[in-house]
Amino acid sequence: MIWEFWKKGFDAWEEATARYVERWIESPLVLGPSGKLLALSMKVKAASEKATAEAWGRVGLPTKRDQERTLALLGRLESRLADLEEKLDARP
Q1: Cβ contacts of residue 24 below 8 Å, gap of 6+?
Q2: Is the pLDDT assigned to residue 92 strictly greater than 80?
Q3: DSSP readout, 23-87?
Q4: Radius of gyration over alpha carbons of the chain, in Å?
Q5: Are 53 and 64 a contacting pair, CB within 8 Å?
Q6: What residue spans define the domains of the chain?
Q7: What's the pLDDT at 37?
Q8: How would residue 18 be classed by pLDDT, with cut points 50, 70 and 90?
Q9: b/e map of 52-86 (b: 16 or more CB within 10 Å)?
Q10: Contact 63/53 with Cβ under 8 angstroms?
Protein backbone atom coordinates (compact mmCIF):
# COMPACT_ATOMS: atom_id res chain seq x y z
CA MET A 1 0.00 0.00 0.00
CA ILE A 2 2.75 2.46 0.91
CA TRP A 3 4.71 1.30 -2.13
CA GLU A 4 1.76 1.97 -4.46
CA PHE A 5 1.29 5.45 -3.01
CA TRP A 6 4.99 6.22 -3.40
CA LYS A 7 5.03 4.78 -6.95
CA LYS A 8 2.08 6.95 -8.03
CA GLY A 9 3.77 10.03 -6.63
CA PHE A 10 7.04 9.17 -8.32
CA ASP A 11 5.30 8.53 -11.66
CA ALA A 12 3.51 11.91 -11.45
CA TRP A 13 6.79 13.68 -10.62
CA GLU A 14 8.61 11.89 -13.44
CA GLU A 15 5.94 12.81 -16.01
CA ALA A 16 5.89 16.46 -14.99
CA THR A 17 9.68 16.67 -14.98
CA ALA A 18 9.92 14.96 -18.39
CA ARG A 19 7.49 17.45 -19.96
CA TYR A 20 9.43 20.38 -18.48
CA VAL A 21 12.82 19.06 -19.58
CA GLU A 22 11.58 18.25 -23.10
CA ARG A 23 10.28 21.81 -23.58
CA TRP A 24 13.51 23.23 -22.18
CA ILE A 25 15.75 21.07 -24.39
CA GLU A 26 13.73 21.94 -27.53
CA SER A 27 14.09 25.65 -26.80
CA PRO A 28 16.20 27.68 -29.25
CA LEU A 29 17.99 29.13 -26.24
CA VAL A 30 19.41 25.65 -25.58
CA LEU A 31 19.64 24.25 -29.11
CA GLY A 32 21.61 27.17 -30.61
CA PRO A 33 24.50 27.24 -28.15
CA SER A 34 24.64 23.47 -27.79
CA GLY A 35 24.84 23.10 -31.59
CA LYS A 36 27.67 25.63 -31.74
CA LEU A 37 29.45 23.84 -28.91
CA LEU A 38 29.11 20.50 -30.69
CA ALA A 39 30.45 21.97 -33.95
CA LEU A 40 33.39 23.53 -32.12
CA SER A 41 34.18 20.31 -30.28
CA MET A 42 34.16 18.38 -33.58
CA LYS A 43 36.61 20.91 -35.10
CA VAL A 44 38.88 20.58 -32.07
CA LYS A 45 38.72 16.78 -32.29
CA ALA A 46 39.60 16.84 -36.01
CA ALA A 47 42.52 19.21 -35.40
CA SER A 48 43.74 17.06 -32.52
CA GLU A 49 43.60 13.89 -34.61
CA LYS A 50 45.44 15.61 -37.46
CA ALA A 51 48.17 16.89 -35.12
CA THR A 52 48.53 13.45 -33.53
CA ALA A 53 48.83 11.77 -36.94
CA GLU A 54 51.46 14.29 -38.02
CA ALA A 55 53.44 13.77 -34.82
CA TRP A 56 53.38 9.98 -35.25
CA GLY A 57 54.44 10.43 -38.87
CA ARG A 58 57.39 12.63 -37.90
CA VAL A 59 58.56 10.02 -35.42
CA GLY A 60 58.27 7.37 -38.11
CA LEU A 61 55.50 5.33 -36.51
CA PRO A 62 52.37 4.31 -38.42
CA THR A 63 49.28 6.42 -37.95
CA LYS A 64 45.82 5.06 -37.27
CA ARG A 65 45.01 5.38 -40.96
CA ASP A 66 48.16 3.47 -41.90
CA GLN A 67 47.28 0.72 -39.45
CA GLU A 68 43.71 0.49 -40.77
CA ARG A 69 45.00 0.28 -44.35
CA THR A 70 47.44 -2.49 -43.38
CA LEU A 71 44.71 -4.35 -41.53
CA ALA A 72 42.46 -4.19 -44.61
CA LEU A 73 45.27 -5.54 -46.79
CA LEU A 74 45.90 -8.36 -44.33
CA GLY A 75 42.19 -9.20 -44.37
CA ARG A 76 42.17 -9.43 -48.15
CA LEU A 77 45.33 -11.54 -48.10
CA GLU A 78 43.82 -13.88 -45.52
CA SER A 79 40.69 -14.24 -47.65
CA ARG A 80 42.73 -15.07 -50.75
CA LEU A 81 44.75 -17.65 -48.82
CA ALA A 82 41.56 -19.27 -47.57
CA ASP A 83 40.26 -19.43 -51.15
CA LEU A 84 43.50 -21.05 -52.30
CA GLU A 85 43.33 -23.60 -49.47
CA GLU A 86 39.77 -24.49 -50.50
CA LYS A 87 40.86 -24.94 -54.11
CA LEU A 88 43.78 -27.16 -53.07
CA ASP A 89 41.53 -29.23 -50.82
CA ALA A 90 39.00 -29.63 -53.62
CA ARG A 91 41.60 -31.06 -56.02
CA PRO A 92 41.36 -34.82 -56.58
Answers
A1: 30
A2: no
A3: HHHTSHHHHHHHHHHHHHHHHHHHHHHHHHHHHHHHHT---HHHHHHHHHHHHHHHHHHHHHHHH
A4: 28
A5: yes
A6: 1-59, 62-92
A7: 95
A8: very high
A9: eeeebeeeeeeeeeeeeeeeeeeeeeeeeeeeeee
A10: yes
